[in-house]
Amino acid sequence: MDDLLQEFIAETRETLEAISGEIVGWEADPGDRSRLDAIFRFVHTIKGSCGFLDLPRLARLSHAAEDALAAVRAGERAPDQSLVTVILAIIDRIGEIVEAIDAGEALSEAGEAMLIAALDGAIAGEVVPSVDTADAPAAAPAVRHAPKRSVRLSVDLLDRMMSGVSDMVLARNQLARHLRMIDDPRLESMLERLSISVDELRDTVTRTRMQRVESLFSALPRLARDSAAALDKSVTLTIEGGDVELDREMIELLRDPLVHLVRNAVDHGIEDRVGRLRAGKAAAGQLRIVARQAGNLIIIEIADDGRGIDSERLLAKALRAQPERAAELAALDEDGRLKLIFEAGLSSRDEVTALSGRGVGMDVVKANVEQAGGRISLTSRPGQGLTIALEVPLTLAILNAVLVEAAGTRFAIPRQSVDEIVAVDGGAVRVDRVAAGAVVLLRGQRLPMVSLPTLLGQSEGNAIPGFLAIVSLREGRFALALDGVNDTQELVVKPAAPAVMRAGIYAGQMLPDDGAPILLLDCAAIAARAALAFERPDAAVTEAEVVEPVRALLFDDIDGVRRMIVSDAVDRIEGVTAGAVRALAGGLWLTIGARSIPVWAGTGAVAGEVRKVLRLQLDDQELAYPIADPIEIVPLPQEIAPAADPRGVIAGLAVIDGEPIELVDPLALFDDATASAARPVCLLHGAESGWMEAFLKPAIEQAGYRVVRRAPPGLPVALALAMEDDADTPPVPALRLSRERGKPLYRFDRAALIAALKDYAA
Question: Any residues with CB less than 8 A from the CB of 553 and at least 6 apart, and which?
Fold first, then answer.
């Protein structure tokens, strides 16, 4: 019986997550029979299970709800707002009772009789307030998915599976390094088969941790409805991208921040009906939540069409609360003013309501999102609305980490915690000893310093560090002194031994390709262990305004010349294994997993000899720039002498520590990659456009065209390619291919096709 009860509790919890949204959607569209049937099936299942498991309170509540819903299904009762509100209250009560049963706690029956009576209409006026729903928005019908077979697995078991597969990947990588020294084609073939199988297994196991993000969104329709009703507002909630998948643990971390942002949108952003009508808007506010995947990131946008953020009023409130920051606040641009909303104690509302106005929340939202390895950004359109974008990694099981050295041992630091890494001897930083501690002076800012070797008890406190990692926490920033910096890698996080975790400064362990375990540092715990007292992050050493310079990465290029590139253009510095860079298709390509990235070869890079690259990104394009060694991140001087050849990849010269250094232009590096955007567009038209793309696309591109199967909006199409028997007329001039050999444009005659395309372009 205990097993049956636990199964009942688990299934009820899962259904409760989605059923509230179904009820809200049914209220907006009473004619949606599929939603009504889903709600009826839920309460009917609860009633049947309660009778078998001897749960009389749940049976009474579900039986009353079933009778009311049956009357609606039979057309004997209208699903008005009062009925829906009572049904929601009963669903909530069922959830509370289920949680109490699971916890083994007693729960008072007070109010349950009133709920049941309210369903009969006896005392509905006392239980549910009358709310005008004339402007209630209509919800879009939910997309129904066919039921899938599934089993429940504990998260611990999934973590063990992920750990085992990670060990398998590491063993595969070690084996591959050794086998590359043996020239045996048979071994290479077997290794390739093994690699494909291991990669597929890793992807499969990784997906077992994934869950559709609709489970995160399921409670939001109810939340938006109740918040709007409490404020006498009308709000239309639109949710898109529920089929996007996200790590289960990440979903739990985002649940509270998303709830807060939805409440903020309804309370702060969307005006009341009178205010919206005066502003020329529809009476019902629009709230839109969209999830989409971009690479290894999930982007969740919460957009409303309300009043936006008044940055001037926000700035004025900050000045009133902290007049000593007047000079700093006056220097803020629009983006900096908007970010004031994330400061503790600062609210955009002047009055306190039941939902907001206390200045507590957005700072916590930002901290929680950053704790999950993500970031939050704002786009405000005064008088038109606000869009908040959350960018989070797909999974917490794989973390982007910086590998560092201290006291002869390698460690890992979460990449999202590190603002920058600077060399102590680079001239951009000064270390001052203060009593028993040390303070770093970096571009006009004082930062407390923690020596990792000293914290580990492996060196004296007055030792000069080689590098400083500038670590950013919610409380402030500090400098972590290191002996060396190796690389940046995406690694699987695994739990460390209990004896190691008791040290209090580690968050787990990671395994790089060489198989030697690396401990993951907990930066917040290190700051707590060192008892750091943070100044305000933006506090300057002097009262003079400190202008934050553009930063650039200084590196030794593979041709022996020291150069630099703006650090914002560099996504990461990545080590390259032997054989990962190959000469293919007339260029150099870096193979990473199942992807190939073009490699810049202008400085004489040789396939097989590249060991480190800068991963550069521009919009949706990516490029690898081979280097010998990264040096440090330095401020870019304001005075830059322009290059003699403006068409080259060197933008100019800047003087760093008395030495002229070439500045690489990232836009010029991407020039070849972006040149295709300026090519004339060739539209593949008709029913056989898929065949043309599969077989003719390389030939068309060789003739100088950009190939599309659907005309992009706003982009002119120069020429269409179609079959001669295609009755549909293309919207632009067309070359027509023949199915018969011997005709001028026989579809298998590649040379004739290229010639015709070039003639047309000429």
Answer: 564, 565, 566, 567, 570, 573, 614, 630, 631, 632, 633
